[in-house]
Amino acid sequence: MPSLYVVATPLGNLQDISLRAQALLAAVDAIAAEDTRHSQRLLDAVGIKAKLLALHEHNEQVAVGQVIRMLEAGQHVALISDAGTPAISDPGARAVARVREAGFPVVPIPGACAAIAALSASGFVENGFHFVGFLATRQTARRAEIEALRALAVPLVFYESPHRIAECVADLAAVLEPARDIVIARELTKLYEQIVRMPLGEAVAWLAEDPNRSRGEFVVIVSGAPATEGLGVEAERVLALLLADLP
Ligand code: SAM
């Protein structure tokens, strides 16, 4: 049956592309990519010739129509983003929903995901986490979002760009308890990979000490609400479940 394959690609280190991903990308009739020029470099590096079509946040609705027509014509299509797993803080989620609605199988080809890579090396031992992704770009909205996460008892996982890492960490430190731990995971799998853990109250000064520490791409993880505060463990667990279902 013609299918859409959601294929994870490396975060930086090309060796992180799986054998299955390579075989699949070489076999499909077309690859829908967030940035075709960026993805062409990856495909060239692993020696794959493929037909690329653009599917990004600005054309997703139109491009998915093209993907569905290809599936209806019996073709297999892969979906990739610039780095990591498509549809996770990346284009693709709406395309996946539409393809499923159209009745075609959607098959994940798992691999790199920045949040999971950072969590795996974070040392947080709680059973579970809350994935936030990108916070709002405006400070008032950003602080309100952080405030709404304050009672959650599990680690909070954020994505951040170099442009806003200092503001993001400053707002986390302003709204949440300074004794919580923060993990800053920078440039994962790349040459200047850095993963540090410290009390949240020290993180603003740590970043300011060296401009290199604000360069690159970031996953930020902050430990959950301290056990002594809030609603109690069971109430927090229920609240976390309810909050996770909110849009
Ligand atoms: N879909 C991707 C995934 O599976 O992780 C995430 C895409 S999102 C548009 C890009 C964000 O992911 C970056 O701003 C950063 O927060 C995070 N990210 C991507 N690559 C990273 C890396 N090598 N090191 C740290 N964070 C990274």
UniProtKB/TrEMBL annotation:
PROSITE patterns attached to this UniProt entry: RSMI (PS01296)
Domain of life, source organism: Bacteria
UniProt keyword terms in alphabetical order: Cytoplasm, Methyltransferase, rRNA processing, S-adenosyl-L-methionine, Transferase
GO BP term, example: methylation
Alphabetical list of InterPro entries matching this protein: 4pyrrol_Mease, 4pyrrol_Methylase_sf, 4pyrrole_Mease_sub1, 4pyrrole_Mease_sub2, rRNA_ssu_MeTfrase_I, RsmI_HTH, SAM_MeTrfase_RsmI_CS
Keyword Phosphoprotein: no
Molecular function per GO: methyltransferase activity
Catalytic reactions on record: cytidine(1402) in 16S rRNA + S-adenosyl-L-methionine = 2'-O-methylcytidine(1402) in 16S rRNA + S-adenosyl-L-homocysteine + H(+)
EC nos: 2.1.1.198
Keyword Glycosyltransferase in annotation: no
SUPFAM superfamilies: Tetrapyrrole methylase
Localization of this protein: Cytoplasm
Residues annotated as domain Tetrapyrrole methylase: 4-203
PANTHER family: RIBOSOMAL RNA SMALL SUBUNIT METHYLTRANSFERASE I
Family matches, as HAMAP family: 16SrRNA_methyltr_I (MF_01877)
Purpose: Catalyzes the 2'-O-methylation of the ribose of cytidine 1402 (C1402) in 16S rRNA.
Family, per entry: Belongs to the methyltransferase superfamily. RsmI family.
Protein name: Ribosomal RNA small subunit methyltransferase I
Source organism: Aromatoleum diolicum
Source species taxonomy: Bacteria, Pseudomonadati, Pseudomonadota, Betaproteobacteria, Rhodocyclales
